[in-house]
Amino acid sequence: MRESTGGTRERIKVVALELFTEQGYEKTSLREIAERLNVTKAALYYHFKSKDDIVASFVEERLERMDALIAWADSQPPTLDTRRALISRYADTMFGGEQPSVMRFFEQNQTVLKSHSSGQQMRSRMMQLAFALCRGDDSPAAQLRAALSLFAVHSSWFAVRTPGITDDERRRIALEVADELLAAIGPAPDGNAASASSVDPPA
After folding, report:
1. Taking Cα atoms as reference points, which of 66, 64, 57, 60 lies closest to residue 17?
2. CA–CA dist 86, 78 (Å, integer)
3. What pLDDT digit, counting tens, does each position of 57-110 carry?
4. In terms of CATH architecture, what is 56-188?
5. Comparing 1-49 with 56-188, is the CATH topology the same?
6. Which of 56, 46, 45, 55 is nearest to 17 (CA)?
7. Percent of the chain having pLDDT more than 90?
8. For site-directed labelling of 150, which of 32, 122, 144, 196 has its Cα 20 to 30 A away?
9. What is the CA radius of gyration of the chain?
10. Which pLDDT score, from 0 to 100, does residue 49 have?
């Protein structure tokens, strides 16, 4: 049976991701991807004109997931339960299915994403997610805690170096750290004045 166009496209992405992770994005050519797939370069070009197009396809999928999360968060009350649910759903988008391999590629090839136009879109979505996590508390400390809670999930891929640790364990540890940060977000008991005094330098 002839393989579907969609199936071929997905197979290309899987093999490209394997090579990008094994030997680096810069050192991988479209010819090598085609050879591992056992297809012609012309067949590969039908789906992707360049390596950048392949990277863009990974980023576009992440943007779609992030947009869905942002829309969901906007429909929820700005409570700690919502923040916990949002960061858990965000972790799911990074640890489910093929996403661990995609995230390892992103971490190993930061310079590629920085120079890629879609990388700027990802940064914008991250800021929107951080805003959603601290909605209801616009203090500088809340903004920082929200951003750091997202970073806790991201950094679990390279900061946790325990040999043999599983992806599930990484996810659990990341969410534990994120929860400590999110639990401190919310209106201060005495209002804005109390929030402001908490960040004032000692006399």
Report:
1. 57
2. 11
3. 888 888 899 999 999 999 999 999 999 999 999 999 888 766 777 777 777 776
4. Orthogonal Bundle (1.10)
5. no
6. 55
7. 50
8. 196
9. 20
10. 92
170: nearest Cα among 99, 108, 65? 99
What mean pLDDT is reported for the chain?
A: 84
Structure tokens that stand for 115 in this block: 């120079």
CATH number attached to the domain at 1-49 = 1.10.10.60
Number of neighbours of residue 119 by Cβ within 10 angstroms:
18
Contact 29, 41 (CB under 8 A): no
> Quick one: three-class SS letters along 29-50?
CHHHHHHHHCCCHHHHHHHCCC
Q: How many residues does this entry show for the chain?
A: 203
pLDDT, position 5: 60
How far is the C-alpha of 66 from the C-alpha of 145, rounded, in Å? 19
